[in-house]
Each structure stands twice: as C-alpha cells, then as structure tokens.
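ingest -> validate -> predict -> emit
validate: passed (alphabet ok, no gaps, 517 aa)
predict: started
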Amino acid sequence: MECAPTFQIATRHHLQAGSYSAVSDIAHGLRLTRRNFISPAATDPLPENEMRFVIKAAAWLVALNVVFLILTIAVQSLDAAKIEARLRMDVASGVLGPGNQVPGPFGHNLDMFTECIALSAGAVPPDGASAVRRALEHRYFPGAESGKADPCGALTSYLDDDRATVLIASYVRYWHGYDVYLLPMVRLGMPQKLLRYLNLVMVTVLCVGLLHASARLFPLPVMASLLVTLFLTADLFAVPLVTAHVVGLLVCFATAWAAAVYMKLKPDDSEGLRWIALFSGAVFAFVDFLVNPPLTPALLMFLVIAARRWNRPEMPARSVLVTSSSVGLTWFAGYLATWAGKWILSAIVLGPRPVFDEVFANIVKRTIGNPESETQRAVSLHFGAATLANIEVLSWTLLFVSLVAAAAILATAAVRGHLSSERVRDFLLVATPALVPVLWLEVLRNHSIVHVGFVFRDLGMSLGVVVAAAMFVLVAGSRAAGREGRRTSIRTRSPAWSLALLPTSASRRRAGLGRGP
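emit:
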C-alpha cells in the first residue's frame, strides 16, 4: 500500500489545522482506500454458492407450480351458472358487448378480446370434465365460426341463449392466472364497472407506494419522471378497464415496491433481490397473457442501477451492470420456468403430443412466423420492424416529445455546469434497462406486430427510463455541485473560528467516521 504514508500525513496535517475540510478529506480518503484496495466482488458480492441458489430456486419453482395448479382448480370449481347470471347483467347494462376492440377514453382501443376469453372461461359449462382437466385446458368461447376469432361475439351470443353456434376450445399454453383475481369477484356478483374502479384504486396505491419507497433510495423526481412518462406514453390510465391486462401491471408495480423496500433495508444484499425477481417472474407468468412482460424486469433493473449509482457512486459501473443483469435474468428464469411448468403439467394430464405440438408451433409462429395472415397486410420481418410497428401505435409525436424532454433535462444540467464526463457515463448506465423492452419486441417479432394494440406499452417503459436517466444526471450533478460549493466556502473561512464548524455526530456517522463527541 504505497499511498498509505501520504494518506496518513495528509490526515495529520488537516486535523492539526482543525478545519471542516479535514473531515471531508478523511471520508474521501476512506472511500478511495475502499475503492482501490477492496475488490468489486467484495463490495457487492454475488451468492457464494451459485449451485445452491439454483437448487433452491428450482425447488421453489416446483412448489409454486403446484400452488398455481391448486388455485386454477379452485377457480374452475366456481359455480358457472352464477357467473353467467352476473355477466348477463353486465351485457344488459352495456358494459359488455360483442366488440373485441372498443375505443378507449384516451385514444387507444381497449383490448376486450383477452377480457372476453377470461370471462368466458368462467361461463363454460363443466360438461362432466374434472376440475383438474378444466384448469389445464382453460376452455373458452373462441367464436361462432370455425377459423374466425371472435370471443366477445361468442360470449354475448352465449349469454343471449344463442348457444347452438358457439364453439368451445382449449387454451392450454398459458396459466391464465388472472382468473384467480377476476372470476371470484364476478362469482360474488361484483359488476364490471365496480371491478374496474377497484383495479384503478389498486394501481394508484401501488404507484404511490413505489414512489414513497424509491424516494428513500434516490431523489423523488427520478422515479416520478419515469412513471409520468410511462403512464402518458403507454396509456396506462386505460389499463384498469381490462382486468386481464391490469393484473400483470399490479404484479409489476408490487415487485418494484418490494424491491425498493428491500434495497433500503439491505442495500448490499444482491441475492435477496434475485429471490424477489425469481418469485416475481413466476407470479407474472402465472397471471400473464403475454401482454407486457418486459415492463417488470426493466423497472427492476432501473431501480437497482439508480439506487447503487446514487448511494454508492464509487462502485464500478461493471459491478452495477452485473448486479442489475443478474436480477433481470433471474426474473426471466422464473418467468420461463413457470411457463414450462404449465406445459409439463398439461402434458401429463392431457397427453404430451397435443400439448407440445401446440406449444412449439406457437413458439415458432410468435418469433419468426409471418404475420400477414393475421394483420391482413404485407409486413416486413427485418430487424427493427417490430419496434417501428409499435412506435406507429405509440405515435411518433409522443416519442419525439419524450426524447425532447430528456434532452431538455440534460441541457439544463449542461447550462448549470453539471454535465461532466462522469455524468454522461451515469446517464448511459442508468438508461441501460431501456434496451430490455426493445430486445423483447424484436425476439417475439410476430407477436409484437400482430398485437401492437397493447404491446406498444413496452416502449413506454423504455422512454420512461431514458427520461428518468436524464433526471438522475440533473439531480446527481446538483448534489455534487452543492457539496463542492459547501467545501469551497468553508475552506475560505478563518482558521481561528473554523473549529466551531466541526460536524455533528450525525454528519460524522454519515461520513463513516464513527460516533462524535
């Protein structure tokens, strides 16, 4: 440690001077010592035994799959006649209709297609099939004509007693766990209007909780700018009107809230964050209809990077990226493993051939399949086509406004003299999770093009992360400038009375110097 004598001499000199700058320089020296002589792995350790983590994670995922199966069996055991009676009243009141795409209140269409699939699953008569088989098959009304998908038209026809032409089909490849949230309330007689208000209240509560928890990790404007951009660009204000979509959003915000609370309690525990990500991915796969999966891992990764960069700026960027990437990949591992669990359970009960034929055919279709038969127009599948198609739905105007907002925030930082090379690196690092939704769109290219009506929300998260990264740079630059200004001001004071400016016990503890006198 060749720099140790220099550090000791500097410390002795400043203490003799008795100035407040001594405390700042000592704390800075301690941070430098930690950064130079302690490896990044020691400052932010990953789990020591990865194999143990993998084994425990696999055991938990198996247990969760059993729990999910029990929940879906319980839902399929609900009285279909009473669910049907409640839905008839909703049709009579005009809340439910034959339209699969209904104009929303803020410009985009509401995807009632998936909502009708969820509701019809509760109205399909048992026909003597066991609850286990019904839970795995998830039978619903696909339409009245073979080859034409019209679940809302089929559901309203069925409820109007025109049942002769209504078809019944199975939807094996998803868990359809949103039924666990939706159908019991329908069974209890809750009107669709009241259910939508409940969805709105739950989204609001979770967003407020996330804002409060994240404000304890880094300044409130950072997360606030992300959520405002996300809601405005992705039309999330309308999502509570479609229960089959809002359940995944609730899981997303609840996960981020839990992660923010955990990072405040245990800021150095990366393994705990991975467990949160694993359980979140599993639960999301259970309730998801392949609506907006990348929202959750992107938000989790943003939280990890922003919190580490704000509270531990000396931590190497590579270590921050490794930690955030491990959290994101663990989320996807839980998500995919739970999906695969549904296929395996279905193959055991329903037979492997029909299940895996459907699964693998749809994997190929939704990744590299040509979407022309579903979109009724010629579509290019080159790299970037899915992203461009979703930008068209999101609107180029909102994209431009969001990027201009981020540029304006960075320009403000530059005008104030805060946009140093270090701050530029901060921006690039904190904005990294914006790539997650874009990569997802391109991997599932067919799905992203066919279902642009709700997939476009993923890009709202990307824009939100970019704007929040710019806000992070602004507040980080202001903090650094404020500290430098206080240090410069105190150093110009007279040494005769600078002893009175020695820090309090609280500030000494924050500087890492132990208890004060």
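Strands lie at 101-103, 109-111, 139-140, 169-170.
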